[in-house]
Amino acid sequence: MLHFFARRLNEVHRVKREERGFTLIELLVVVIIIGILAAIAIPVFLAQRANANEAACRSDVRNGAAAAQAYAADNAGSYANINAGALKAAPYNWKLSDQSTGETATATGGGTGFTISVNCTDAPEPTYTFNSATGKVTP
Fold first, then answer.
1. CB atoms within 10 A of CB 11
2. How far apart are CA 138 and CA 49, in angstroms?
3. Residue 68 contacts residue 82 (beta carbons within 8 Å)
4. Those residues with Cβ within 8 angstroms of residue 77's Cβ, 6 or more apart along the chain or in another chain
5. Which of 54, 91, 118, 123 shows the smallest number of beta carbons within 10 Å?
6. Whole-angstrom distance, CA of residue 138 vs CA of residue 124
7. How would you label 46-80 residue by residue, b for 16+ Cβ within 10 Å and e otherwise?
8. Long-range contacts of 92-96 (CB under 8 A, 24+ apart)
């Protein structure tokens, strides 16, 4: 057993010094490759983050529209006197994500329609609006 360890230790000592580790050039090449990959990945990550913030704001607007429709169902189909405070209270419970900073809900056309607006942070457009006449979310 000792003979085996002595032989292995002898083999390790016979290895040339330059074969024991990485050279400075090899390490620099690895660092440069990692830097190039980071330069590619960081802008892509930041773009995905902006897209996620926009999706969160659009989702907040759509959730507000669903709460407004539930409000109208409880008020004989009328959107009269609708406001963001009423939609945030029970039973509608409209909640905003962390990306949204403010909201408004207003009745239009004598209570036959509504408009929901949400102000957003870190999104390509600062405000997103849902209009019941068009049924679309617009920046």
1. 9
2. 20
3. yes
4. none
5. 91
6. 12
7. eeeeeeebbebbbbbbebbbebbeebbeeeeeebe
8. 92/67, 93/67, 94/63, 94/64, 94/67, 95/63, 96/60
Whether the full predicted model's pTM is greater than 0.85, yes or no, is no
Number of residues that make up the chain: 139
Domains in the chain: boundaries: 23-138
CATH (residue range 23-138): 3.30.1300.70
Q: Scan for tokens 């704001």, then name that residue.
A: 57
pLDDT tens series, the chain, 139 aa = 677 777 777 776 666 555 667 889 999 999 999 999 999 999 888 888 888 888 888 898 899 899 999 999 998 888 888 888 888 888 888 888 877 777 777 777 678 888 988 888 777 778 888 998 899 998 8
Amino acid (1-letter code) at residue 102: G
- Paired tokens of 34: 């990692």
